[in-house]
């Protein structure tokens, strides 16, 4: 009988590994895998990552391989099969889950992998340079910060602080993996990571961006399209990071690439490292469209509008009622005010008012908002008291937001806003994502919207120039790429926070428009006066 060579054995074991991974994914409920961030890398993507990393090492240098989050060993499998890897000084994989560690040990230990069933983040790194890895390929666990205990966060923070690094408490576990791995990577070694794209834009990602700019030579940052999900069971946009353990040379250029294949990207933008800042959003670099022109003085949307998130009731089904429910409960009208329905119910970009101030031709929804003490409600409004007792029986008053209000059945102050913007949305057929809506009604809005209130000077100008807000709104909703000020998630879901929208730079055409209006008012924007009619 013919003996199988190493390559044939590796191919057979990969088939067994894939079957074991599929069985694990099926046997473990999705919530558990979400909490522990256990999302296996597709084999084809693992092959590309290994080829990319191995190709950056000198051909005559033996590989010292490390995978800090081994799983069933997909990257080691790729190393055996696609990179002409035959021997190594070392090959180490860490896996905290004993079920997965047992699978990898059974499959790969005979082929030279040292499987360590322990927590990588608390394991001491090698003291000698020769014992450190020169090739790290890893898909670290995508565990969000709220799944990390306070004790674990403190341990992780202490560990990265020893490296002179700091991380926000909002950082996910993958951020700690990446920074801690620095002590395991040899000088001139190569690392290839697949991580969530959120670090490109969020504030807590600044520490990772700083590390990539100052501690290592970042070679490539590849972002997959938001709709091109790399994991079938995780709605997340993915980024491949490739860097070398060395200080970046003078005039170094980082490749920002995108496309379905990291080995043959469709778009490539090279950016000099001195032009990159850890405080800026790197996600903007992946837009092929032109950013809007920024006028002198760098005016932002927040110079003209207060941007507030819509109100959060904490229990919409209880506090937001339709007209039939209000009539059936006989709730007093003085404690009910109009509220906009979800954006799906609003077909156009304009919400007009009926004779009572409610949105015209839209679902007639009302927000319950009462500031009277309970003993007054009991005495004067028995039907409202009955409804509040129902809510108390359901525990509505003990929910977090209700508990923080006094009385619990009162609401935040959110008057009707003349312009609202969607908080979360997907790209539409016309290419736009975020949606601005001109609100002429007296309806407030829930926290699925951002509310734009004119600042004093704009409000005064609009009072003497009635068409000003309409014209400004029409310009605002045509601004390209405004969603780039926010962040994007897997499946093309865009999210915009109030501060992000406030910081959006006002394009020159809007500045020119404001200058052209004959209101006799002056706007002070940053260090710049915009004189209307000047």
Kindly summarize this structure in a few lines.
The protein is α/β, with parallel strands linked by helices.
Q: Care to describe what's here?
A:
The protein is an alpha/beta fold. The relative contact order is 0.09. The chain has a nine-stranded mixed sheet with strand order 3-2-1-4-5-7-6-8-9, with helices on both faces. The protein has a five-stranded mixed sheet with strand order 10-18-15-17-13. A three-stranded antiparallel sheet has the order 11-14-12. Helix 1 (6-27) packs antiparallel against helix 4. The chain has helices at residues 6-27, 30-36, 43-54, 74-82, 98-108, 150-161, 173-180, 206-214, 316-319, 323-329, 374-380, 382-393, 400-403, 456-464, 468-476, 498-502, 508-516, and strands at 63-67, 88-94, 114-116, 133-138, 185-196, 217-223, 238-244, 253-258, 267-272, 305-309, 320-322, 336-338, 350-351, 365-368, 419-422, 424-426, 436-439, 449-454, 487-489, 493-495, 522-525, 528-531. It is globular and about 80 Å long. Strand 8 (253-258) and strand 9 (267-272) form a beta hairpin. The longest helix is centred in the first third of the chain and has 22 residues, at 6-27. The chain starts with 5 loop residues before the first helix and ends with a strand. The protein folds into two domains: 6-286, 3-Layer(aba) Sandwich (Rossmann fold), CATH 3.40.50.150; 301-375 and 411-531, Adenine-n6-DNA-methyltransferase TaqI, Chain A, domain 2 (Alpha-Beta Complex), CATH 3.90.220. The chain contains 17 helices and 22 strands.
């Amino acid at each position: 009988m013919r003996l199988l060579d190493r390559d044939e054995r590796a191919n057979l074991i990969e088939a067994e590994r894939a079957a074991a991974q599929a069985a694990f994914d099926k046997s473990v409920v999705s919530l558990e895998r979400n909490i522990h961030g256990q999302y296996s890398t597709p084999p084809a993507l693992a092959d590309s990552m290994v080829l990319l990393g191995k190709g950056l090492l000198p051909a005559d240098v033996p590989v010292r391989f490390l995978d800090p989050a081994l799983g069933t060993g997909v990257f080691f499998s790729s190393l055996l099969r696609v990179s002409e890897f035959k021997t190594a000084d070392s090959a180490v994989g860490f896996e905290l889950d004993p079920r997965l560690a047992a699978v990898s040990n059974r499959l790969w230990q005979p082929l030279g992998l040292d499987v360590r069933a322990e927590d990588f983040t608390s394991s001491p790194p090698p003291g000698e340079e020769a014992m450190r890895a020169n090739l790290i390929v890893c898909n670290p666990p995508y565990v969000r910060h709220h799944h990390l205990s306070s004790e674990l966060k403190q341990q992780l923070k202490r560990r990265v602080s020893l490296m002179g690094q700091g991380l926000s408490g909002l950082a996910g576990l993958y951020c700690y993996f990446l920074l801690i791995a620095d002590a395991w990577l040899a000088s001139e070694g190569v690392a290839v990571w697949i991580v969530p794209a959120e670090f490109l834009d969020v504030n807590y990602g600044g520490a990772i961006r700083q590390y990539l700019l100052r501690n290592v030579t970042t070679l490539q940052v590849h972002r997959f399209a938001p709709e091109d999900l790399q994991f079938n069971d995780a709605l997340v946009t993915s980024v491949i990071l490739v860097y070398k353990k060395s200080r970046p040379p003078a005039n170094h250029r980082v490749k920002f690439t995108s496309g379905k294949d990291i080995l043959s990207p469709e778009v490539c933008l090279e950016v000099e490292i001195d032009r990159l800042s850890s405080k800026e959003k790197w996600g903007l670099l992946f837009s092929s469209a032109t950013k809007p022109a920024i006028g002198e003085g760098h005016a932002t949307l927040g110079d003209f509008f207060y941007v507030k998130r819509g109100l959060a009731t904490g229990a919409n089904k209880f506090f937001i009622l339709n007209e039939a429910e209000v009539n059936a409960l006989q709730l007093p009208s003085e404690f009910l005010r109009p509220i906009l329905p979800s954006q799906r119910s609003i077909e156009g970009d304009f919400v007009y008012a009926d004779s009572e101030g409610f949105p015209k031709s839209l679902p007639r929804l009302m927000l319950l908002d009462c500031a009277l003490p309970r003993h007054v409600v009991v005495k004067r409004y028995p039907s409202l008291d009955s409804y509040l007792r129902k809510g108390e029986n359901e525990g509505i008053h003990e929910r977090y937001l209700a508990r923080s209000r006094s009385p619990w059945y009162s609401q935040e102050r959110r008057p009707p806003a003349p312009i609202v913007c969607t908080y979360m949305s997907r790209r539409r057929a016309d290419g736009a994502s975020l949606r601005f809506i001109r609100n002429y009604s007296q309806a407030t809005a829930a926290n699925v919207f951002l509310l734009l209130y004119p600042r004093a000077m704009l409000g005064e100008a609009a009072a003497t120039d009635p068409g000003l807000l309409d014209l400004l709104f029409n310009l605002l909703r045509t601004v390209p790429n405004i969603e780039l000020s926010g962040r994007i998630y897997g499946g093309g879901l865009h999210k915009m926070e109030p501060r992000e929208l406030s910081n959006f730079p006002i394009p020159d055409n809007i500045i020119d428009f404001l200058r052209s209006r004959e209101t006799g008012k002056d706007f002070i924007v940053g260090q710049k006066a915009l004189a209307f009619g000047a």
